[in-house]
Amino acid sequence: MSEQRLTRKGQATRERILQAATDLIARRGVAGTGTEDVRKAAGVSGSQLYHYFDSKQALIRAVITRQADAAPVPDQPMMGSLDSFEALRAWADAAIERQAQNDGQGECTLGSLAGELSASDEQSREDLSNGFLRWQGLLEDSLLAMRDRGELRADADLGELSLALLAALQGGAVLGQTLRDTAPMRAALNAALAYVRSFGPA
């Protein structure tokens, strides 16, 4: 159902369902989260849930869209404000700290969703791809602002640099979650930031 046609009460109910689904997926994964679990956690009836989401796939796709619109590092600014070396360093440190606080657990992110869905569900894979590309675009815009101010050289490939930062964040998160250690994310982000700095003015 289109959010534009919802009343304020309807929007609040839909958001409550999405939040419940997000929280459950963070703890149990997609496979371990059923629509009945979401219904109970959200405190809604079955007819209410299916009024907003006619299938589990529709609910999961809405979760993907919701997470794609969220900041890549929760509780931190979107990437559009990361237009300096200092801001990028603070953003990376915040990502590492968040993983340390969570012990590599309890997150429902595009990366964790991609690990479960991309190979089995083409529609969800496309949604995830669009989310990642949006994040990369925000990073690239930040780097463009740095280049326009002369903080990066004119020959810097902003597409490659933004992809390196995003891959470091996502790859470090997956490996860190598996090892229950922040070292992979720290190493990956440090390497990516060093690569970005290598294109600073001589």
Entry keywords:
single chain; 202 residues; mainly alpha; Arc Repressor Mutant, subunit A; Tetracycline Repressor, domain 2; 9 helices; 69% helix
Description of the structure:
It is a single chain. By secondary structure, this protein is an all-alpha fold. Helix content is 69%, strand content 0%. It contains nine helices and no strands. The chain is elongated, with a radius of gyration of 19 Å.
Poorly predicted regions: none
- Outline: elongated
* Largest sheet: number of strands, sense, barrel closure: none
In CATH, the topology of the largest domain is named Tetracycline Repressor, domain 2
Nutshell version of this structure?
This protein is mainly alpha-helical. The chain is elongated and about 65 Å long.
Helix and strand arrangement:
Blueprint: H1 8-28, H2 35-42, H3 46-52, H4 56-69, H5 85-102, H6 110-117, H7 122-148, H8 158-179, H9 183-197
Helix pairs in contact: 1-2, 1-4, 4-7, 5-9, 6-7, 7-8, 8-9
